[in-house]
């Protein structure tokens, strides 16, 4: 099977590629894996270092808005997994246009090129944020899209284009929507790595508002396994939630992280709340469990402990990214 993975140098895409090439997904025997990534601030070739020597891997430094490049690379490809996106909500609030370009135009360009190249299957990786915010209960896959941030709106736009390419042209596109991910190799601008690396650095933890926002957390390894199941056995044109993670307020999560470092709340610096901050996300994961037997496997406390350990042991990976990010953004988390 020849696979093309967009955004394969990012946090989740690189995990998928590392797992794929080390045989974690037996239903996806990979003869060739082509990673297309434009290496924005969030893309990092070293994320693929553990599999770099694998002769089946080919890295293409390219933009998903470049139709000519995609047409060339998609020739003979059996399946596409589409991770490439601008992914940080705060950056989308500071400047939305690059989010529309990559997430909407880039996705449309990829879908059109996949259609023209006769690609058999596309998985479009999306997010729970497309639904907006939910006070109680959980979203099912047929709930209306009511995104609130420019990031979420651009992802919702890309989800609707995926739907249109299936309905209009018959392209086999499957959409996955996952909750918040955590794990190794996540850029230190995002909440968990920001707080962990600030704790390691002795810097304060910038907590939004009263910390009452609720997020559902799933380990990126579980997310990627869900994507692999959808690619191998999902139905064309369908959307699948990859949820079932641990629901926590940001305050509860901060408390757990402080405990790992035996630090107290004096380390926390409350900051003005994010504009349009969604209160709560919650996905109903029943469909993927019924159809594909998926359930997250990694216990949150255990996965978080392992993630903290990874950041402790990999300062060389995150320190340069953090220094660069500090000069570009406000330094508050996703
Ligand atoms: P990331 O920001 O870590 O990685 C994005 C990757 O895409 C980077 O390698 C970047 O260089 C690349 N990229 C960006 N613009 C590109 C372009 N125009 N052309 C080619 N490559 C480009 O993101 P992530 O956290 O790994 O998220 C991956 C996908 O999963 C995204 O689509 C995101 O919306 C979705 N998602 C993320 C989460 C989460 O918690 N991180 C949760 C649910 C869904």
Summarize the structure.
It contains 11 helices and 12 strands. The chain is an alpha/beta fold and 334 residues long.
Per CATH, the class of the largest domain reads Alpha Beta
The fold-level CATH name of the largest domain is Rossmann fold
> Any ligands, ions or cofactors bound here, and which?
nicotinamide-adenine-dinucleotide
Q: What is the H/E string?
A: EHEEHEHHEHEEHEEHEEHEHHH
Q: So, CATH architecture of the largest domain?
A: 3-Layer(aba) Sandwich
Q: Return the structural class.
A: alpha/beta
Q: Give the overall average pLDDT.
A: 96
For the largest beta-sheet, the strand count, sense and barrel status come to: 7 strands, parallel
Low-confidence stretches: 330-334
- Termini distance? 36 Å
Strand content: 15-25%
What's the helical proportion of residues?
40-55%
Domain module count: 2
Strand order of the largest sheet: 3-2-1-4-5-6-10
Shape: globular
CATH superfamily of the largest domain: NAD(P)-binding Rossmann-like Domain
Number of DSSP strands? 12
Structure overview:
The protein is α/β, with parallel strands linked by helices and 334 residues long. The protein folds into two domains: 2-181 and 219-242, Rossmann fold, CATH 3.40.50.720; 183-215 and 247-273 and 300-325, Alpha-Beta Complex (UDP-galactose 4-epimerase, domain 1). The protein has eleven helices and twelve strands. The chain has helices at residues 11-21, 67-74, 89-94, 97-117, 150-169, 191-201, 220-233, 250-260, 286-292, 300-313, 315-328; strands at residues 2-6, 32-37, 57-61, 79-82, 121-127, 173-178, 180-182, 205-208, 214-219, 239-242, 246-249, 268-271. The strands form three sheets. It has a seven-stranded parallel beta sheet with strand order 3-2-1-4-5-6-10, sandwiched between helices. Helix 1 links the parallel strand 1 and strand 2 (32-37). The protein is globular. The relative contact order is 0.14. Nicotinamide-adenine-dinucleotide binds at residues 6-7, 9-13, 36-40, 42-43, 63-65, 83-87, 102, 106, 125, 127, 155, 178, 180-181, 187.
